[in-house]
């Protein structure tokens, strides 16, 4: 295998690995931009992965699976909203609670319904989101350089992969070019001003957490219905937290979020490919260091050593009208 | 006032509301049991019998409770300073390294009561060190402590696997852990105390001396928070940062000291796991206790007495849950994770949900109890 093929393959797995991060990261972006911290991305993703795979295998349809994933994830997002918007509870506590509820109930319900040790039944091809071959991918495969890039790297992914990358410009457009986006950003910076303008702070924030729920649902569905053919217990394995790290790394901006997720996905792909083999120049790098690198980088960024990450000003603070 | 809610009598605030929140959490958990197709009442009976039915069960319940007292106190100390230490899990895990190094050095030379104080120091030192960086970054560089402690949990997991697998694991062993610790690092069991109450002979429960350490720490935390100058500063800082600054209390000092204490307390949990139970340093030794500490601290209203009671409750859930999974195979131990989540949700994030109703109730029964009569008097 030539060096070029290795690069193409590594980049291909980078894309595959960064998709769930990207979706979860954009999900967090909506919520946090509106002033609602959400450390419950992990839990919502996990619950959606389970609901998606379970519904897809029972109803034999990938689309019903995705619909169920969205339903469950949005419900959890609304619980988070109910606690932190309506009841002005602590947003961190609420997010944490959702992570635990999702982690426990996916295993308990999975075992009770399917009796396969917390797994859902293996999904048949029509119950998953299959790879899409872009037009002309086979024809250009033999063309040097451009051929493999088009047919390996860009073509042959699942629908949800393209959705994830299209969600980036879409989110940018919503956030910076629509009235809803302007208000969303405003409510995260200064909710009192938004309230004075006669716009409901609570309703805006609820809409933001619903967007979060939908995107985490797609992220979860990708994990259980594309990346693997069914749900495995604890399959998010900290991806929600990496997405959170990526969100900070991206300074709460959609396009940066894409690059941050691609970077973290690349680190992951590299760790898998190297499997402890020595790198040129640096020498042998422990796999654990590669796994911890996204977190270490985020801490360094947060400390203000590589630029400064300033969160939305009203983030984490419940809005109280009369004061 | 930071809370927009009227006052309730203390017993309602610290007794009734937590109980109602807890009851709701358990009712929802009962619905999950129902969804799985089992009888929630029978499940509850099995749970309580498993935890208290035999001496063995009680010993296990208290063994688990020991872990949660440490991590609960850790979360509570930080909470009094207005800091949310979500990193107890990582701090306890890394502290396991401190305990392990002390034990590996001393266990063949000296008896346990010599190793014990050094192990406490090792746990406290490593736990506090792991909490120091997030604390420093929050105090000096303004990075959010919740995020940094989450990141440090993840980094701790990677670090400890590296240290255990590549450095401390003996060559010949398959499993990723240190060599077995010998008598000098094994804490004596306390099962005889339970046997004094007339239970049958307890064979194998790991209930040990670190339970007493946990009780001592609970007392010391009470002393610190409510009877010392530092505790006063911590509470002031937690109540109002502006007031604290005005009073000349150093933000940096309080943040860092509170987090160091918090990390040290979380770290001591590893003594129970390593010296009391497994007699080696192993992968994932904190086993989620750091997170349960959050539920425990919220339920116990960050007061040591409340924390001990809440820890015993979670000990019951852990031990009873193990029995339950034998009796009802559909309900594995992961049920506890759901209950833990529900407790955190209802006792933490939604703690004020029922408060307005209870206030209305109290006001209609006895206006004086919520301070309504005084307002009327002023108006006249």
TrEMBL record, chain A:
Pfam families: BPD_transp_2 (PF02653). This is ABC transporter permease. Keywords: Cell membrane, Membrane, Transmembrane, Transmembrane helix. It comes from the Bacteria. The keyword Transmembrane applies. It is a multi-pass membrane protein. Its main location: membrane. The keyword Cell membrane applies. It is found in: Cell membrane. The chain crosses the membrane at residues 62-83, 95-114, 159-176, 206-225, 231-250, 257-276, 288-306. The lineage of its organism: Bacteria, Pseudomonadati, Pseudomonadota, Alphaproteobacteria, Hyphomicrobiales.
Automatic annotation (TrEMBL), chain B:
The keyword Cell inner membrane does not apply. It is found in: Cell membrane. Its main location: membrane. It comes from the Bacteria. The keyword Membrane applies. The chain crosses the membrane at residues 15-37, 58-84, 113-133, 145-164, 207-226, 246-269, 281-299, 305-324, 336-354. It is a multi-pass membrane protein. It holds the Pfam family BPD_transp_2. Keywords: Cell membrane, Membrane, Transmembrane, Transmembrane helix. This is ABC transporter permease.
């Amino acid at each position: 295998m030539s060096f070029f093929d290795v690069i193409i393959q590594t980049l291909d797995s980078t894309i595959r690995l960064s998709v769930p991060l990207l979706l979860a990261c954009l999900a967090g972006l909506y919520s946090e931009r509106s002033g609602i911290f959400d450390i419950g991305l992990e839990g919502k993703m996990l619950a959606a992965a389970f609901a998606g795979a379970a519904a897809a295998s029972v109803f034999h349809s990938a689309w019903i699976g995705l619909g169920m994933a969205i339903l469950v994830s949005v419900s959890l997002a609304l619980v988070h909203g109910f606690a932190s918007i309506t009841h002005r509870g602590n947003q961190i506590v609420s997010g944490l609670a959702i992570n635990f509820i999702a982690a426990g109930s996916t295993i308990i319900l999975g075992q009770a319904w399917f009796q396969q040790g917390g797994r859902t039944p293996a999904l048949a091809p029509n119950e998953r989101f299959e790879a899409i071959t872009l037009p002309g991918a086979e024809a250009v495969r033999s063309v040097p350089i451009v051929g493999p890039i088009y047919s390996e790297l860009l073509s042959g992914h699942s629908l949800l992969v393209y959705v994830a990358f299209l969600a980036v410009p879409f989110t940018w457009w919503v956030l910076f070019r629509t009235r809803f986006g302007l208000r969303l950003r405003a409510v995260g910076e200064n909710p009192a001003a938004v309230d004075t303008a006669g716009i409901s702070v609570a309703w805006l924030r609820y809409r933001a957490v619903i967007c979060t729920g939908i995107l985490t649902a797609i992220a979860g569905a990708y994990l259980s219905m594309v990346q693997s053919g069914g749900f495995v217990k604890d399959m998010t394995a900290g991806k929600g937290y990496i997405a959170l790290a990526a969100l900070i790394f991206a300074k709460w901006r959609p396009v940066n979020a894409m690059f941050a997720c691609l970077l973290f996905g690349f680190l992951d792909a590299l760790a898998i490919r190297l499997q402890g083999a020595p790198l040129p120049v640096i020498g042998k790098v422990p796999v654990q260091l590669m796994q911890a690198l996204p977190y270490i980088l985020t801490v360094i960024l947060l400390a203000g050593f590589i630029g400064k990450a300033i969160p939305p000003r009203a983030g984490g603070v419940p809005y109280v009208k009369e004061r | 006032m930071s809370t927009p809610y009227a006052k309730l009598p203390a017993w309602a605030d610290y007794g009734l509301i937590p109980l109602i929140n807890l009851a709701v959490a358990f009712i929802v958990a009962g619905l999950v049991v129902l969804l799985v197709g089992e009888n929630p009442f029978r499940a509850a009976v099995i749970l309580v019998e498993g935890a208290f039915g035999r001496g063995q069960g009680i010993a296990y319940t208290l063994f688990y409770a020991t872990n949660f007292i440490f991590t609960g106190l850790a979360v509570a100390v930080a909470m009094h300073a207005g800091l949310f230490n979500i990193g107890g899990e990582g701090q306890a895990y890394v502290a396991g390294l401190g305990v392990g190094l002390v034990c590996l050095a001393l266990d063949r030379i000296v008896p346990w009561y010599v190793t014990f104080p050094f192990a406490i120091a090792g746990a406290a030192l490593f736990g506090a060190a792991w909490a120091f960086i997030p604390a420093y970054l929050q105090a000096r560089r303004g990075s959010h402590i919740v995020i940094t402690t989450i990141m440090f949990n993840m980094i701790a997991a990677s670090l400890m696997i590296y240290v255990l697998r590549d450095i401390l694991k003996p060559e010949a062993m398959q499993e990723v852990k240190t060599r077995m610790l010998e008598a000098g690092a094994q804490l004596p069991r306390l099962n005889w105390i339970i046997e004094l109450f007339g239970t049958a002979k307890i064979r194998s429960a790991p209930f040990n001396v670190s339970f007493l350490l946990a009780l001592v720490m609970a007392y010391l935390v009470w002393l610190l928070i409510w009877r010392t100058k530092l505790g006063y500063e911590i509470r002031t800082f937690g109540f109002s940062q502006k007031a604290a600054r005005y009073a000349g209390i150093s933000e940096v000092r309080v943040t860092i000291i509170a987090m160091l204490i918090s990390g040290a307390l979380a770290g001591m949990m590893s003594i129970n796991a390593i010296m009391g139970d497994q007699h080696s340093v192993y992968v994932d030794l904190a086993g989620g206790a750091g997170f349960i500490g959050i539920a425990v601290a919220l339920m116990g209203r960050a007061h040591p007495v409340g924390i001990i009671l809440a820890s015993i409750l979670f000990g019951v859930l852990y031990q009873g849950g193990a029995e339950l999974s034998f009796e009802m195979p559909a309900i594995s131990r992961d049920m506890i994770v759901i209950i833990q989540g529900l407790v955190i949700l209802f006792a933490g994030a939604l703690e004020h949900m029922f408060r307005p109703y209870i206030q209305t109730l109290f006001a209609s029964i006895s206006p004086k109890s919520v301070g309504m009569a005084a307002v009327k008097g002023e108006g006249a």
